[in-house]
Inverse folding.
């Protein structure tokens, strides 16, 4: 929304032949020159990286297989993520979240509740091509109740995406939300879901302001006290994204590093996934919110080549 900045832009002096030679050299002989690989991958756009992967395959070998032999752990996973075009990467993350026993609903919420209409149409299309299955059918099978209704509503990609604010509608929606949330016993989820998944972000900001003046409560506090579990996560994510998407991503990165152990998969989705969209702005939000640079936070929470790659992506 508005003026957001990426950290990775297409490399001006891009020379695919030079890059594949340098990567081949980095993987040959004893030991791998990880630094050379990091310098190339973190300084090329996703489209350029895909070109490198294709050229490498034509001239030498399957680059993903070569790197899988050479690299390990989170560094390997981040590198694999960087060799996919972003929509394929996200389609694979959605599938991974639903495969096997149990569903990682946090990942579904993070990807779908922050997506634009265009993203969602792209995810559905790519998901079908890559997995030969329908994203909507899988989500319908793997989720239930109000969460399923909300995610299915998002998958319609019917959010109004302009910047116009209709004050009358904001007042009407705010009154509906008050009535649905605090006005009576139990929360009317369908009202929350409809408004949060269909209105444009500026319209929602206006609605939240009216909501607060009508109820005396911030909408996030109402959600916190009225909703539970994954539904609460969905609503909170949608509200935070309507207010400031980049601050939501900064919080998500911070949460991935808090407590015991680091959630490397989330860091990869956030840092690789946002690098060509708004990561520079996310960095600004991180510093503003946590009083420490994202680089310093990663420096103390991650290690090895994985850390070096993420920090190089931050530029």
């Amino acid at each position: 929304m508005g003026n957001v900045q990426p950290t990775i832009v297409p490399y001006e002096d891009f020379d695919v032949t030079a890059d594949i030679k340098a990567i081949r050299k980095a993987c040959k002989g004893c030991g791998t020159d990880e630094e050379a690989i990091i310098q190339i991958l973190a300084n090329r756009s996703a489209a350029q990286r895909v070109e490198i992967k294709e050229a490498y395959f034509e001239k030498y070998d399957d680059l993903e297989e070569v790197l899988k032999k050479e690299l390990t752990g989170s560094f390997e996973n981040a590198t694999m993520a960087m060799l996919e075009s972003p929509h394929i990467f996200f389609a694979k993350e959605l599938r991974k979240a639903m495969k096997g026993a149990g569903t990682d609903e946090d990942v579904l919420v993070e990807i779908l509740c922050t997506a634009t209409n265009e993203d969602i149409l792209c995810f559905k299309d790519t998901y079908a091509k890559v997995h030969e299955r329908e994203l909507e059918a899988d989500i319908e099978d793997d989720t239930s109740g109000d969460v399923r209704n909300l995610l299915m509503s998002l998958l319609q990609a019917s959010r109004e995406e302009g910047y116009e604010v209709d004050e009358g509608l904001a007042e009407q929606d705010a009154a509906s939300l008050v009535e649905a949330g605090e006005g009576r016993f139990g929360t009317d989820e369908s009202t929350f879901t409809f408004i949060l998944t269909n209105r444009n972000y500026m319209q929602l900001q206006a609605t939240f302001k009216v909501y607060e003046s009508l109820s005396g409560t911030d909408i996030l506090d109402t959600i916190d006290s009225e909703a539970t579990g994954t539904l609460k996560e969905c609503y909170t994510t949608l509200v935070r994204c309507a207010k400031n998407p980049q601050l939501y991503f900064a919080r998500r990165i911070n949460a991935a590093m808090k407590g015991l152990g680091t959630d490397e998969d989330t860091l990869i989705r956030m840092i690789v996934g946002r690098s060509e969209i708004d990561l520079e702005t996310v960095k600004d939000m991180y510093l503003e919110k946590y009083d420490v640079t994202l680089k310093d936070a990663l420096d103390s929470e991650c290690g090895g080549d994985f850390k070096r790659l993420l920090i190089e992506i931050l530029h």
In short: The mean pLDDT is 94. The radius of gyration is 21 Å. The chain has 20 helices and no strands.
